[in-house]
Structure formats: C-alpha cells, structure tokens
Q: What sequence folds into this?
C-alpha cells in the first residue's frame, strides 16, 4: 500500500468523523497515538477531552446544552499495564474489562457491534498499542454494518507487529461527508508520521476541518522506558 500524507488525507475529507492514528515516531523512539473527534450537531460539538487517570474521557463543555449523552460521553483512552486502549465509544471499557479477565483485544470486541444510530450505524473503531521489552506493536479494529444493513455486523481486525519509524495507520468512522454518513471502507490507511509530539499534534489539528473539529488527543510513548507525553487540544475553551 502506498504511503499517504496524513495531513493531506485529513484536509481532503471535511468529515471523517472520529479517527485513530497509531504508529511510530520519525526517530523510531516512540509509539504514537492520535485520536480526534468531530461533530456536525450542536450536541456532538459540545464536548471537550479531559484527563482521567492515565487516559481521558469526554465531557460536556456546556452541560445545559447536553441532549443525549449515550453515544458521545465515554472514555476514549485507558491504560492497562503495557497496553493503551483507544476507541471511539464505551467499548474502551469493554476491552479494558475483558482483557483484565484474560480475553484478547479481538475476543473482547466480539461482544460489541456498530452504534445504534440509524441511519448512519456509525462504526466502532478501536486500537490497542503495546509497548514492552523495548518494542512496540499495535492493532486496529472496525465493527460496521453491512452497507447500512443493521442485521449484519462486519468485523475486521488488523495487526501491525513491527511498525516502521515515521509510519502509522489511520482509520476513521466515515468515508466522506454525506447523508446518511457512509462507513469507512477498506484496510487502515498507511500514513506518514512527522516530527516530535508538538509538530505532529499541530499538523493533525490544523488539517482537520475547521468547522467540524472538536478535540484531539496525542500521546508519544517512549518505547525504551514506557514513559509518555500527552497533548490535548479542545476547540471549546
């Protein structure tokens, strides 16, 4: 698969929805995680990322404007030992709990399916980054309807065992900005990862659609030590 410029991929899609980028930093020293959320409705745009333990959660920026919290308030990122879980919904907790019981990432997600938000049936996208013994690897998953047919859930898991420096993979919920919103298609997009955490964070944020972007989380995990740096940007301030 040809490597694409992440900034260009973001710029060309006015509404990818929610997105996960996993990979390795340009210098090869860090595992990289990015997660962003976007919104078209007042309810979806009324959110911010806040720190919770070693992860984050979403919360209402203005509680008085909150309508239905069921699909927009959740913990996108949680850490369990050497594993960092990142998802676009409350399946973060499902993966965290079932992996604690000995289930695998893929087994945990078999208990879930796409979101019940007809007619979009938004895919559930999930990622798992493991850093141990001086190495990093990651997995990505998407659970989606079969061409907007809610009677069938399509489940895909992708495993990346030895990521290359300066490269990653990008998956998001929607293929493009239409009504209803079409689900992401194909395997995760191979993308470049440029610069240190601040350079990368700035590049992602500035290339998300200005009207629709809401929040961005970026984490660089030192592969040698497991220590990490985090950046959070919220449009609502």
A:
């Amino acid at each position: 698969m040809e490597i694409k410029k992440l900034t260009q991929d973001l710029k060309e899609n006015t509404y990818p929805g929610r997105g996960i980028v996993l990979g390795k930093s340009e210098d090869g020293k860090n595992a990289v995680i990015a997660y962003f959320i976007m919104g078209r409705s007042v309810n979806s745009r009324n959110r911010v990322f806040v720190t919770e333990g070693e992860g984050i959660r979403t919360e209402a920026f203005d509680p008085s404007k909150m309508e239905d919290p069921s699909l927009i308030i959740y913990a996108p990122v949680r850490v369990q030992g050497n594993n960092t879980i990142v998802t676009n919904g409350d399946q973060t907790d499902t993966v965290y709990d079932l992996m604690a019981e000995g289930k695998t990432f893929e087994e945990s997600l078999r208990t879930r399916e796409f979101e019940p938000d007809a007619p979009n049936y938004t895919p559930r996208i999930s990622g798992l980054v493991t850093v141990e013994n001086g190495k990093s690897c990651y997995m990505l998953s998407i659970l989606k309807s079969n061409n907007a047919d809610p009677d069938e859930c399509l489940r895909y898991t992708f495993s990346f065992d030895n990521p290359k420096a300066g490269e990653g993979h990008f998956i998001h919920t929607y293929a493009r900005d239409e009504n209803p919103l079409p689900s992401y298609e194909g395997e995760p997009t191979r993308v470049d990862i440029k610069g240190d955490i601040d350079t990368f964070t700035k590049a992602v944020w500035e290339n998300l659609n200005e009207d629709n972007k809401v929040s961005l989380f970026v984490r660089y995990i030192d592969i040698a030590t497991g220590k990490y740096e985090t950046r959070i940007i919220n449009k609502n301030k």
Summary: The helical segments are 6-11, 42-45, 91-100, 105-109, 197-207.
